[in-house]
What we know:
mainly alpha, TorD-like
Amino acid sequence: MSQPPFASSALDEEIARAELYGLLARLWIAAPDAALLDALGVAVTDAPSPGGFLEAPWRDLVGAARGMTPATAHAEYEALFGGVGRPSVLLYGSHYLSGFLNDKPLAALRADLARYGLARDESLGETEDHIACLCEVMRYLIAGDDAAIANLKEQQDFFARHLQPWAATMCDAVVQQPQARLYASLARFTQAFIEVEAQGFDMMDGR
């Protein structure tokens, strides 16, 4: 986590994509601990070629992490996504796709995960349509060893069905929360990364 999300070759780019999805999964599932905050705090923020689309939101995220302690990060996470009753912001795809939790979009997602041979991690306490779980699946589809599953076509299809249609709306909801600081920066970076991914997949189709 000492490297920024910028790559200089096709292989580096795929590794960077997988690592970024892994980082997003980690930050959206729980507040960062001291080790992760420290790693973010010393991350390089300058792209090889200045002006890259991810450079500014990445620098903003790193800067926000440098101003956080584990306690303040945890308090922010709980204020936004935890607590008693309905959270300020929901992190589940079904809510944004259908207006209800545990609805048809979750069933469709579970069918795709079963086809990949993936199952819910019961220890997380979250349904599979949580943004962190979806990012982890994308990481698997990029970095996995099974070429029948871990390939660009599966990445594109999964992204288009389960992540792209709602992730930006969720991020907007986070940014609008007055108590969001670290997670406002994370939401803006997530939006930018999703946009880069969408453009990349569009290029595959020659759009």
